[in-house]
Design goal:
single chain; about 190 residues; NADH Oxidase; 4-stranded antiparallel beta sheet
Length: about 190
C-alpha cells in the first residue's frame, strides 16, 4: 500500500486524459475533421511494435454512404448489437498488414499473435489522441470480419481486427460517475 500512496499522482495531465477516455456510443452529428484524424494517426504511427514491423493500417470512413455500406456488412445478424457504430460521424477500421517474421514465425514460436498487441497499442494511442482533441469513441470488436474485410476492399494479407467509432461526445465523459475498477492491490504485485 505504501507504493501506491507514495507514487499516486492523480492530478497529472496524463491521468486526467486517461479518465476522460471512456467508451462512448452517442455523438453529436458534427463531422470529424480530417486534420484530427491525421493527428490521431500520427499518434498511432509512433507506437512501438514487435520487431518494429508497424503493421497497423487505419481506414477512416467519414462519408455517410461509405460508412453505411461498410456498417451494413459489418454489423448485421448476430452482430446487430453494434450497428449503432455506423451512426458515428467517423468509423475507423483497424487492420494489420501481416509480416512473416513477427506475425507468423513469432506467433508459432511464442504462441502470441504480436499484431494484436501492436494494434492494441497503436489503437489506444489513436484513441487517446482523439480524446485529447475533444473527441470520444468506442472500440468495437463484435462484427462480421469476413464481410467487413470484403466491404473495405482490404488486401488478403491484411487482418481486420476492430473498428473505432469516433465523434464529438454529447456530454462530458467526466460528468458520469466512474465505472467500478479493481483495487490496485488486486492487479499489482511488487516483488523484491
Amino acid at each position: 500500500m505504501f507504493f501506491w500512496r507514495r507514487y499516486r499522482m492523480d492530478d497529472s495531465a496524463l491521468m486526467t486524459l486517461l479518465r476522460r477516455r471512456r467508451s462512448l456510443r452517442t455523438f453529436r452529428p458534427d463531422p470529424v475533421p480530417e486534420d484530427a484524424l491525421a493527428a490521431c494517426a500520427e499518434a498511432a504511427r509512433i507506437a512501438p511494435s514487435a520487431e518494429n514491423v508497424q503493421p497497423w493500417r487505419f481506414t477512416a470512413l467519414c462519408g455517410e454512404a461509405e460508412r453505411a455500406r461498410v456498417a451494413e456488412a459489418a454489423f448485421h445478424g448476430i452482430y446487430r448489437f453494434t450497428r449503432w457504430a455506423g451512426e458515428a460521424p467517423a468509423l475507423v477500421a483497424l487492420s494489420a498488414k501481416l509480416d512473416v517474421l513477427a506475425n507468423r514465425i513469432g506467433a508459432h514460436l511464442q504462441g502470441t499473435q504480436y499484431y494484436l498487441l501492436d494494434l492494441g497499442i497503436a489503437g489506444e494511442h489513436f484513441m487517446l489522441r482523439a480524446v485529447e482533441l475533444g473527441l470520444g469513441g468506442c472500440w468495437i470488436g463484435w462484427f462480421d470480419a469476413k464481410r467487413a474485410h470484403k466491404a473495405l476492399g482490404l488486401p488478403r494479407n491484411h487482418r481486420l481486427t476492430s473498428f473505432l467509432a469516433l465523434g464529438y461526445p454529447e456530454e462530458d465523459p467526466l460528468e458520469k460517475p466512474p465505472k467500478k475498477r479493481r483495487r490496485l492491490d488486486e492487479i499489482l504485485e511488487v516483488r523484491r
